[in-house]
Specification:
The protein has 558 residues and is mostly beta strands. The chain contains 3 helices and 42 strands. A hairpin with a 6-residue loop joins β36 and β37.
Length: 558
């Protein structure tokens, strides 16, 4: 009797053994379950942007001068260009500096040629953390702006909480690029225009925060006297509602702002589709920030990378929000989904009591080995179109993909120690390989059309280049089947011959290492078959014969 076993079971053993020896790079890849695509990644403590495939191999790189460092964020556009934030390594003369500080925004094409550059880093302003490209070509940018001690006190800030002599509050600017380095600011929103306080009754903005939840309590989140105050660290744009959602880690909240206002209306409490001007349309996560609840009601803890989900009407996830909940536990982070209730007739978010709906998150993920996903700041989240969730835990340089069953189907650890490549097998401590965000793009993303995405090596030194070869191809191996594949490696035609047993070759399929079928031939009824490999890119492939009864590895090397 012929013995048959599933290759996926065999590979589970094979990959488990291999993974035990892996400390960096690709740790796990189940390519029958993972989302087929490429990952854009911008590691800290160095200057390059990488695009890697699901085997952890670099397929494209945007190089930069080593005198720069990331300002946290990079975006890949459909035309193949990137928009990235960065800063100078030397920050000695900077007036405003804290973790997350940027200063420069660049747009570069696929070939890394500079298209446009913008710089905002002076005595009163500094770009920081995040940007958001819009479909009209404009770019939303987060910016700190300096508020002097006198200005803060004049608005009702408690003087005892200004120990460093100034505050840095947040603004959002929408920049329209012009030429190579020109620009126009076409819209802006200033947090400072929307503060309330109950400390100094002589000031015009005196009032109870609980009765003015569209405004920000000026004396909340004293940040232990440090200058960054609300410190908005991420934003996402909803083009259907024309709204911006942001996360404030020091307030432990997310806020929604109306982008449909004019610049003048954004400074007031009336105007825009929501008729609230630049006041908050929605806030959620920490009722103590608005005096509308207690500590036990808090749901968000230093949130990062707030993202709108499902940006098209009719999408099951439309209007939902996903966030990295950095400090949910003392030693672990979570990822949560929030589903606000939005009334499109009255154009307002629905409240429950003094706060906004919902009462709790609708979905959450906590890794089973929970300390393996703990980053007290930064990090990113993404819901993929197949329902999987893509998560970057920044301080560990760890990127994972989980499926709907919350099973980890892909895992990668950035193999850079303080910006320098390490070898497979080397150990990296928390904080030595920071990656602030990573995003996965599908293989049919327009930016990739006609581009060279062949593997160009690994980031790590001494890589295990065979680890991903067999990952997750769900086929059956026949132990008695004997097939000759010659020559192997191949650069021209390959002879596939069944040389034992009485069976014939009835069907033949060719798969990439990512499990994608790239060739199929049926109804052959042959003992030998010639396969033309001249147009195949160099790499590893799998031949499956007779409806997956026999598999053979094939290497193409021109």
């Amino acid at each position: 009797m012929k013995r048959k076993f599933t290759l996926i079971y065999f590979l589970g053993i094979f990959l488990g053994l291999s993974a035990q020896n892996h400390t960096v790079g690709l740790i796990k890849a189940d390519n029958s379950k993972t989302y087929k695509g490429y990952t854009l990644i911008y590691p800290d403590n160095q200057s390059n942007v990488y695009l890697i495939d699901n085997c952890g191999r670099v397929v494209h790189t945007w190089l930069d001068n080593d005198s720069f460092r990331p300002g946290n964020t990079v975006h890949l556009l459909e035309d193949g260009s990137i928009i990235k934030t960065k800063r100078n390594v030397n920050i000695g003369g900077d007036h405003i500096w804290a973790d997350g500080g940027g200063g420069i925004v660049e747009k570069r094409d696929w070939n890394n040629d500079l298209i446009w550059i913008f710089n905002l880093n002076d005595s009163v302003n500094r770009l920081h953390h995040d940007i958001e490209p819009l479909i009209n070509g404009n770019i939303l940018m987060l910016c700190w702006e300096k508020i002097t001690r006198d200005q803060a006190i004049a608005k009702g800030r408690d003087p005892n909480s200004i120990t460093n002599g100034e505050l840095w509050t947040d603004k959002i600017i929408e920049v329209k690029p012009i030429g190579k380095d020109g620009f126009t600011i076409v819209w802006e929103w200033h947090l400072w225009d929307h503060v309330i306080q109950d400390f100094d009754s002589t000031k015009s903005n005196f009032g109870k925060p609980a009765n003015n939840i569209g405004k920000i309590n000026l004396n909340y989140a004293t940040s232990d006297g440090t200058q960054p105050w609300a410190c908005i660290n991420s934003m996402s744009y909803n083009k259907v509602f024309d709204q911006i959602v942001v996360s404030s880690p020091t307030f432990n909240e997310i806020w929604i702002i109306d982008h449909s206002t004019s610049i003048a209306e954004s400074t007031k409490s009336k105007g825009g589709f929501g008729q609230k001007g630049g006041d908050l349309l929605y806030r959620w996560g920490n009722p103590t920030a608005s005096n509308t609840g207690g500590i036990s009601d808090q749901k968000l803890f230093y949130p990062n990378d707030i993202q709108w989900m499902g940006l098209k009407l009719g999408d099951d996830n439309f209007g939902k929000l996903m966030v990295f909940n950095s400090r949910f536990g003392s030693d672990h982070s979570t990822v949560s989904i929030i589903q606000p209730v939005f009334d499109t007739y009255f154009w307002e978010y629905i409240k429950s009591g003094n706060g906004y709906m919902p009462k709790s998150v609708s979905w959450t993920y906590k890794r089973e080995d929970s300390t393996a996903m703990y980053s007290p700041d930064n990090s990113s989240v993404q819901r993929l179109s197949n329902g999987n969730t893509f998560i970057c835990s920044a301080r560990q340089g760890r990127v994972i993909e989980i499926n709907l069953q919350k099973e980890i189907v892909w895992e990668y650890i950035m193999p850079l120690k303080n910006g320098r490549p390490v070898s497979q097998g080397d150990n990296i401590l928390t904080g030595e390989n920071i990656v602030c965000n990573a995003k996965r793009f599908p293989t049919d993303f327009p930016a990739f059309a006609g581009r060279d995405l062949s593997p160009k090596g690994f980031i790590e030194l001494k890589p295990d280049s065979t680890f991903c070869e067999l990952a997750g191809i769900n086929i059956i191996v026949e132990a008695t089947g004997s097939v000759k594949v010659f020559p192997n490696p191949a650069n021209d035609n390959v002879l596939v011959e069944l040389y034992s047993g009485t069976h014939k070759i009835n069907s033949l399929e060719l798969y990439s290492v990512l499990g994608e079928m790239i060739y199929q031939k049926n109804n052959l009824d042959l003992t030998r078959f010639t396969l033309d490999t001249r147009d195949l890119p160099d790499g590893l492939y799998f031949l499956t014969i007779n409806r997956n009864q026999v598999v053979r590895k094939l290497e193409v090397r021109h």
